[in-house]
Structure formats: C-alpha cells, structure tokens
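Example for tutorial group B:
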C-alpha cells in the first residue's frame, strides 16, 4: 500500500485527535504565544490571531489537499481545551514521513503528547492505514524534552543523523531519530 496522509479521527484512553477546527483558534493563539513553544517551533513572528486563523483555516486543509502533510488537534476525551497539535509530513523519500508537535502550556507534564504521538505513529506505520515504513523525528540538541518524548515512544537516536535546520532565522545543528514499522511490530 502507498503511504497516504489523512486526518483520521484517533481515540486513545484520554484523548481525541482530529482535524483542527474553528473552536481551536483562540487556544492555538494562546499556545503559540507561549515562550517555550516559540523557542522550538518555527512560527510566524509576531504570532497573531490571524496566524492562528490561517493555521486552522488554510494551513491544515492545504496539507490534506496537497497530500504533503496532515495535522491533528489533540483534545481531552472528556472535552476541554486544546492540548496541542501533531503533524505528519511526507518526506521526499517514498514511505518516509517526519513528525512534529507542540503542547499548550496548560497541558504540559501530563503525558498527553506521548499518548498522542504513540497513536499517530501506530496509525502512520500501519500498512492498512497510513502505510509509511519509517517516521523521522528531528530536534535541536538544546531541546532535550523533544528527544525524551520521541525516545519514550520508541524513536532510535543511536547513530542519529546530524543535519542543519533553520530556526528563527538562524542555522542550527539538529539530530534525526527514526521509528520503523518493524520496530513497532516487534
């Protein structure tokens, strides 16, 4: 099966992951104004309400229409505020995709991103659903929390690839870890 990108509704023990909607705009705005989020996520500067509206109304739908990426909004299963967002972006290599995410400051430290990332990785690597063979996780070494999150889900950084990324107008060293379908199926 060829890898495909779609925003399937995913439900975990505590979470619902689905396409971002209009009711998420103000939470996206507040989360993306947070200093920790801005430090590690390449966001427009300054980040405004129009930026959040663009994210929900244009950026997310465009990813699906272009078949290049998909974004899930993460919500508590019992209702409540947006917890964060998780993106899967198809790489230039067939069968390979990269993941990225951010957490709202009011939801940090509760294991929500780990739970959401496990669900999305299982979906993306499932041959009958996402169809990817490998997922990649890129982080800058100063963001140790990003690496810990990926490792908690099974990403392997042994012999990780070094690369360069642009973050806030500066070139930064980054590392790439991988999670393969075979790793998940063991």
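The residue assignment follows.
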């Amino acid at each position: 099966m060829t890898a495909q990108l779609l925003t399937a509704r995913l439900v975990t023990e505590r979470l619902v992951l689905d396409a971002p909607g209009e009711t998420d705009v103000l939470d996206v705005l507040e989360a993306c104004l947070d200093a920790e989020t801005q430090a590690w996520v390449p966001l427009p500067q300054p980040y405004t309400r129009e930026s959040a509206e663009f994210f929900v109304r244009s950026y997310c739908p465009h990813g699906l229409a272009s078949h290049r990426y998909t974004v899930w909004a993460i919500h508590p299963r019992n209702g409540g505020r947006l917890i964060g967002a998780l993106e899967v972006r198809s790489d230039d290599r067939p069968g390979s995709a990269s993941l990225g995410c951010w957490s709202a400051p009011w939801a940090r430290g509760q294991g929500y991103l780990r739970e959401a990332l496990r669900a999305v990785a299982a979906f993306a690597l499932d041959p009958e659903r996402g169809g990817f063979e490998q997922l990649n996780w890129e982080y800058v070494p100063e963001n140790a929390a990003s690496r810990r999150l990926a490792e908690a889900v099974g990403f392997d950084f042994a012999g990780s690839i070094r690369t360069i990324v642009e973050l806030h107008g500066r070139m930064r060293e980054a590392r790439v870890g991988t999670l393969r379908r075979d790793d998940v199926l063991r």
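The chain has a mean pLDDT of 91. Compare this with the pattern of hydrophobic and polar residues in the output above.
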